[in-house]
Amino acid sequence: MSDVVLRAEGLKKHYPIRRGVLRRTVGHVKAVDGVSFELHRGETLGIVGESGCGKSTLGRLLMSLEEPTGGSLMFDGVDAFAQKGGDLRRLRRDIQIVFQDPYTSLDPRKTVGSIVGEPFEIHPDVVPRNKRRERVQELLELVGLNPEHINRYPHQFSGGQRQRIGIARGVALNPKVIICDEPVSALDVSVQAQVVNLLEKLQAELGLAYIFIAHDLSVVRHISDRVGVMYLGRMVEIGDEDQIYNRPTHPYTQALLSAVPMPDPTLRGSGRQIMLTGDVPSPANPPSGCRFHTRCWKAQDVCSVEDPALEPRPDGVDAHRSACHFAEPRVVV
Ligand SMILES: Nc1ncnc2c1ncn2[C@@H]1O[C@H](COP(=O)(O)OP(=O)(O)O)[C@@H](O)[C@H]1O
Ligand code: SF4
Ligand SMILES: [Mg+2]
Prior knowledge:
ATP-binding; 333 residues; 25% strand; binds magnesium ion; alpha/beta; four-stranded antiparallel sheet; nucleotide-binding
């Protein structure tokens, strides 16, 4: 078996923009526009970028919940986009999702038992009908909930507990990969660490690989083995934890890192903070060349003409992939 469980190449999702009574297509929102990466068994890949850069769309593409506009996706050696019917259903067993908002992603009219057991209705061969209640109780216990609460409803639980319910549903089918789409963003800071710890515990026990989506680099640092930074539908830098946090080479990553609130007040205003100016351009009409050139303090003429490839570039110690013509490491406090 290969060490790579998921390989995306040139993934694209363009949404048509329709206008007028004839609903003519007048353009496309390039939500994901050529994203390539691989995910190894049992690892956590963090995906970070500002709101609207295409993270959730990427997650839905990986789940085969969206019709891709282009690119390919290999899941465990199988061409995911070529699967249909029963084959697609089997593939979907192995890749699950946990959503951001535990308040809206759980059906308020269903009991916890039927929410967590729902995957068994879709994949009836996984657990025999007469064993399902027991299995659901095991899952509740696994995620730190009281198995006796199986008949309660979502509103009887706190936000953190509801996210545990969502996680129990996510692991019910023993998947290989779980996409966590901002799973702690809606939770109180005090509860976030508990949910992250639970995800880490499950990863160790069940050998799961995670794609952990967040809009903030600080959230994914602790949990990620590697991190990919997205900007306007593209991956602009990807590397291991040390490479991204200690020697980022892409100006956008450096700006995101310097935007993290500084714990030490004496360092504030020390001139090392990089302020991002200007709004994020529209993904319907991305800038030419390097998409970041309209906001980049290092931009030169070539940047608006030539699109920099995401390729290994020196970072002071070795090299890691970065999409900048002038990539150079910079220590950001
Ligand atoms: N179903 C859709 N139809 C049209 N545009 C969409 C759709 N889903 C997302 N978009 C657009 O695609 C871009 C990326 O969205 P999204 O993937 O949700 O970003 P993120 O999760 O990073 O905030 C946004 O401009 C968003 O408005
Ligand atoms: S290629 Fe140019 S505009 Fe793009 S990030 Fe690098 S320096 Fe900035
Ligand atoms: Mg999103």
